[in-house]
Amino acid sequence: MVREVRNILLSPSRIMQISNGVKKLILIIIFTSFFLFFGQVFAQTEKPRFTLCPERYIAGEETLYLEGTALPGTEVIISLQEGEKEIKRWQILSNEKGEWSFSTRELINSGRYYLAVKEKGEGNDFADRRLIEISLSGFSLPVPSFFETWAGKGPYPIAFRNLVLVLALILAAVAMAVLYFMGRTWQIKRILRKETQEARTTLLSSFESLNKEIEEQIKSFDFQPGFSAREREVYEELKKSLIAARDSIEKEIRDIERVLGRS
């Protein structure tokens, strides 16, 4: 029985089957190691790429949104280029999965540009470059040459939405200032009317008292009751002067009240 089993196991056909199985196992190990090794090398040399990049962007109305991939924890440089000239540059960090995203609402002048991406420190070697057409919902403000030294080169983009907002704020500020001054003017006029009325009352009362005081003083000049002819003449002259002064002051008060009433 043992001899028969040994003969079966050591038969040429059985040995061939075992040999073929070992060869297949060795090939599987080799290919698995190959793919693991070169897959890791490829992952380590993967450059930043765009996975989402629009072909058009309306500055001043939309949000420019970009997505891409890179090595995990890589500082990615996004460059906006007009021909070979770099217009703007942004920097973003990829997450632990090697994914990154970026968004901005910056105002950019209308034109055809390129969006390029690279890893920080790679010089001018951009791994991915995409064409984008930008339209400005607004206008570009030119900068005079004598201002370029401190203001930088223009033109500067201005969005219609921002301009409308600024104008609305200016109009609101002007309206508030007008209402404030109108309120202050009304308050001042009200105070002036009150003071004018009080001045008229005080003036009439003062003239009446002064008239009586003058009459008493003149009567006592000769230590006799009543007016003498001379005292009557002096009193009448003083009374005329007082009435003239009172009428003149009353006229000025009426003029002030008329002006306050019209305004």
Counting DSSP H or I runs of 4 or more residues, the number of helices is 5
| Largest sheet data | 5 strands, mixed
Number of strands: 10
Shape type: rod-shaped
State the distance separating the first and last CA atoms. Answer: 134 Å
Q: Class by helix and strand content?
A: alpha+beta
Question: Average pLDDT, to the nearest integer?
Answer: 76
Low-confidence stretches: 37-45
Q: What is the strand content? A: 15-25%
Reported by name, the CATH topology of the domain at 49-136 is Immunoglobulin-like
Could you name the key traits of this structure?
rod-shaped; alpha+beta; 24% strand; 5 helices; 263 residues; Immunoglobulin-like; five-stranded mixed β-sheet; 10 strands
Describe this structure in words.
- The chain has helices at about 1-10, 10-45, 150, 160-220, 230-260; strands spanning about 50, 55-60, 65-70, 75-80, 85-95, 100-105, 110-120, 130-135, 140, 155-160.
- With about 260 residues, it is of the alpha+beta class.
- Among the domains are: about 50-135, Immunoglobulin-like; about 185-260.
- Strands 2-8-7-4-5 form a five-stranded mixed sheet, with no helix packed on it.
- The model is unreliable at about 35-45 (pLDDT under 50).
